[in-house]
Amino acid sequence: MIVEFHFDFGSPNAYLSHRAIPAIETRTGVKFTYVPVLIGGVFKATGNASPAVTLQGIKNKGEYQQVEMERFLKKHKIADYNSNPFFPVNTLQIMRGAIFAQTQDYYERYIHEIYQHMWCEPKKMDEPEVIRNAFEASGLPSADIFEGMQDTTVKQTLIDNTTRSVEMGSFGSPTFFVDNEIFFGKDKLTDVEDEIINNNKKR
User: I need a labelling partner for 182 at 20 to 30 A (CA). Which of 1, 76, 162, 163 fits?
Assistant: First the structure.
């Protein structure tokens, strides 16, 4: 069974999904594959936009989404989440960094650390010096990653991932695929888990 999590560090809901995924992996015995995509590219290809844009002028909807987030934080016992005051952050460089990290032995640690710098101890993670300092604070090989970010194969892989995600049906982040069955949003994680369990029963 292939379970994919298409993510961009710039999405707070993708981060919250990331925090909930380990428990699902433990309960189901199925490992999620983290697929880096560029949310800006997904939006451009689909005509979508960030909720920060789409919710403007809609009475009560933004307030409801905050209520939903607070419920999610409580349900999953997440106490260290903080809204990033620099949102929206251009994540191009750190997403390229994720592609490079996939070729190294610290991909999972890279994801954890960048998410910490984005949504636990929020920073403006689109400024090179801020990114560099974050890498160094996390014990990540800053010079190697910055060099990797400029690699043409790394750049193309991020483009290809984003294109493939859209072709599979994605229009935002977080998006999940369970054997190509699509689920969108952190609130669909229960359905993702049910799909995994049902698919396991069929095997």
Answer: 76
